[in-house]
Amino acid sequence: MTRARSCIWAVAITAAALFGTGMPWGPTPAPGAAPASLTFGLSAEPPNLDPHNSAGAAAQTVKMQIYRGLFKLDSRGRIQKDLVASYDQPTPTTYVFHLRPNLKFSDGSPLTAADVVFSFERIADPKVGAYLQKRLAGVESVEALDPQTVKVTLHAPDAVFITLLGLPQAAVVSKTFTLAHNDDLKTVTMGEGPYVLADWQRGVQLTVTRNPNYYGGAVKTPEIRFVFYPDDNSRVAALESGSVDMIEYVPWQAITQIQSNPQFGYQGTDGPFMYLVFNVTQAPFNDVRVRHAIGYAIDRDAIIKTAFFGRGGTIYGLPIAKGNLAYDPAFDHYYTYDPAKAKQLLAEAGFPNGFTATLLSTAQYGMHKDTAQVVQQNLNAIGEHVTLSLPDWPTRVATGNEGRYQFAVMGTVGDYSDPDFLSLFLHSGPTYYAYAAGYNNATMDVLLEQGRAAMDPAKRKSLYAQVQRTALADAPYIFLTYREQGYAYRKGLEGFRLMPGFLAFYSAYEMEGFTVAR
Amino acid sequence: MPMLKYTSRRIVTAVILLWVVVTLVFAFLHLLPGDPVFIILGSESGAQAPSPEQVTAVRHALGLDRPVPVQYGLWLGRLARFDLGTSLYDSTSVTVDILARLPTSLQLIAVAVALAVAAGVLLGITAARRRGTWIDVVLSVVLAGGLSIPVFVIGTLAVLVFGVELRWVPIGGFVPFTRDPAAYLRQLALPATTLAFSLLGVVGRITRGSVLEVMHQDYVRTARAKGAGEVRVLVRHVLRTALIPIVTVVGVQFGILIGGTVLVEYIFNWPGISTLLFTAIQRRDYPTVQGIVLVTSALFILINLIVDLSYAVLDPRIRYEGGA
Known about the structure:
The structure holds two protein chains of two kinds.
Chain A: H1 3-20, E1 38-42, H2 57-66, E2 71-73, E3 79-81, E4 84-91, E5 94-99, H3 113-124, E6 139-146, E7 149-154, H4 161-165, H5 175-180, E8 195-201, E9 205-210, E10 223-228, H6 232-240, E11 246-247, H7 252-259, E12 264-278, H8 288-297, H9 300-308, E13 312-314, H10 339-348, E14 356-360, H11 366-381, E15 385-389, H12 393-401, E16 407-412, H13 422-426, H14 442-453, H15 457-474, E17 477-490, E18 493-494, E19 515-516
Parallel strand pairs in A: 1-10, 1-11, 14-15, 14-16
Antiparallel strand pairs in A: 2-3, 4-5, 5-7, 6-7, 8-9, 9-10, 11-17, 12-16, 12-17, 13-17, 18-19
Chain B: H1 2-31, H2 36-40, H3 52-61, H4 68-80, H5 94-129, H6 134-148, H7 151-165, H8 181-215, H9 218-225, H10 230-257, H11 262-268, H12 273-282, H13 286-314
Helix pairs in contact in B: 1-13, 5-6, 5-8, 5-13, 6-8, 7-8, 7-11, 8-10, 9-10, 10-13, 11-12, 12-13
């Protein structure tokens, strides 16, 4: 064989090997699938599918189709019964839940009280790393009175207990299935929700199909394809080119162009918020006057314009919005944008020539970095000396967890709209990057605990009014802005209703009700 | 058999080199600040802090509470059994993850390199033969463009023009070649061309330079004087010699691209090894990062070996001595 021919053979064999290999992924609908399916552009690939863990909003959207819990949130963001048919509360610390009859998991096996008990135990097990482990630590005992009835006893009355059970991270899992899989639900699922996991092509997409054993009956859309688009521009391009029917996490710079396009619909709301977190044990931020000064020194509108392309709202007090039980307009304008006043407060605190500090943030997320840059500019403009530290996210988290910072930028969202969410930030506890290092106010702790244990709305409102007053006076945080969170979809998609405020991330709870006209 | 001896010595060196690389990566990874346990427990989402018992329990379950030298020893032990471990995030085998994603990257790189070499060599030869003319100028500008315009700019523009405006190609989604070759090729077209355009610049300029050097050698003039046609002169005489630096560059580029195609894979949603590596680093998924670095380093070393061996094929004057 001549050299040339053997070369050609070598190339041919290599090409065959190259293009014929790769994992034989499962049955794939070709792009442009059966008309009845819905294609959803996710902003990230779910790292895993364990319903008790929290792995990001994108993962949550998928899990909400597969798993359900005792309660859920409806499209207005109100708590509704889901697996529970009815419940009684014989004492302030006892709940008796009656499950719906004939509940089944997707493989047809019955869903009974034993599974509910098992799910509570699993959440409480530290090595599972369940998101709600700490929050449900007030559960003293869970027992199955009969296959349809579960009795839960709490240590103390808890105004948010039912709300917690409505969060997606409180899903009910199958005891037999979970134990058979070594307690590892990361890549295998057995749910009771409207859909089942059909196929997961790593790095590409994840498909769910109708669950024939869903108690809510046949769902309108037989299949949902979640395609992963981590790149913002590609996600928007996918919607505009018709490759997907709907996307989440619409990048702020694209919102206006989508809204003005008659082919698409957009629904967005202010939900998550950005804030400054202080290490109150170290100079210069161990002086509350300095922290107050910062509250006056930051131009919130500039942050919204720069980091969020104008899509957001200012916060001059606390992130408690209208509609929240504890909302009081009196707290809305605790601060104003007043650099002169800030300078004056700083002079009184002993920094007439400015303080020196490093602002911790991350270069990995544009919105964090941009917010940090505006804050730095605002402060340096009034004579302070602020430098930025912008490591990657895991480093930023580690630095925060160790309390090795002076002040830092953070962004997050409340898990639910009850004012108790403030307790995460204001109750004393171990150092965590999202909370003010060293903040410890015993009066505040008592107020928060009382607020959570009180069942009477009027009493709670007055308790949380005190909480807010104290929080504003202590200023372990300066809250900056809300940012808009939106979904965009092609016209013809019916049944989608954005949930309000913090709950915007749960808006995909009712995807079984979506239909797309073609 | 001097070639065989040469090759076996190279393989032994390669194994040692690999061990050094993965040890360095292991060390750096564990020195990096950033704790995978907190990321696993949901630092990206929601404000609820994990409890201290959870942190301890999860750290123990993942084996991350053992001293680093012990973890290193255990990892080497698994390596000896060809076990790359499991991902910290979803307990899937790292080997399975890599085997699923590596071929797609290699396919992308192979096609892009093939396109870049074909176009680059052609353009380079044309520019060399027409040196000084306006054709040379135009081609050199095009090649410079490929070299200097960042690949993510080309990629995003390509998505906009061919995906959104013209709708010639779908955006995202992926079908393996064995399942639907036509759809696969349509998806591959844009990322491969984008990557090829970036490589084109390097290949084209090297070709132009190399051909220019060889074109005026005596043996080329002799061939022409003997009446050989232009194409024959080009292929049999000029290219054979000019190819050596081109092959070197292509080999190096190919090696760099394995694990280096992050931007193209990210923009076009091409499920390759680079985006897997990128995500794993972001999340401090130690076993996955270590596994991918090991595999891509091995491939890089293998490609270099092939390139070196190919010199002997291309230039009969080069022969490797056993003792060299």
